[in-house]
Write a structure and sequence with these properties.
178 residues, alpha+beta, 2 domains, 5-stranded mixed β-sheet
Length: 178
């Protein structure tokens, strides 16, 4: 009976997650409320949810940078990438979120000193939907959806990583020129 209850709970959880995923896909990934956002403020607010995490992410800010995006969606993207960095690190490792800009783009770098990924994984699996390394706890859509949201905003996500040394994700978004 305990095993059957556990199986039913697992299936119910999976159905709820799939229903949520289908709703997201049905409604589209583009934000419904894009507006001018100050990136430092958005990242500070997003990182509040990780204050009790180990390691606690370090946030390195710059002068104000303005972009055009849906606040909730971009916060979810950054939160997903930060959570993945935390998941890939031990308590003794580091996770850094660095905000900067080039001449035309806002840059959000999420850098960890965790387990890292090999080039083949990045090329063939990282952004493949429904492919998860997290077993039953992952749906395999976070990285894929994050990249699609960023691309819909006119940006992209770059990744470099090395096994045993960590990963470096760079989210690039068009700047709003003042």
């Amino acid at each position: 009976p305990v095993f059957v209850d556990d199986v039913i709970k697992t299936v119910k959880n999976s159905v709820q997650r799939m229903t949520k995923l289908m709703d997201q896909m049905r409604n589209g990934m583009r934000g419904k409320h894009p507006k001018r956002l100050e990136l430092n403020l958005l990242c500070e607010q997003t990182c509040q949810r990780f204050l009790q995490s180990q390691p606690t992410p370090q946030l390195l800010l710059t002068d104000p940078i303005y972009i055009f995006a849906d606040m909730e969606q971009l916060s979810n993207v950054i939160g997903h990438l930060v959570q993945n960095a935390i998941d890939a690190t031990s308590k003794a490792d580091e996770v850094v979120i660095k905000i900067s800009q080039s001449q035309t783009e806002a840059l959000i770098e999420i850098i960890d000193s965790g387990s890292g990924m090999d080039a083949q994984f990045i090329k063939t699996r990282l952004f493949k939907p429904f492919d998860s390394t997290k077993g039953l706890t992952g749906m395999g859509i976070g990285a894929y959806e994050s990249r699609e949201v960023i691309r819909a905003l006119g940006g992209d996500i770059d990744v470099s990583s090395q096994i045993g040394l960590g990963s470096h994700f760079t989210v690039r978004l068009p700047l709003i020129m003042e």
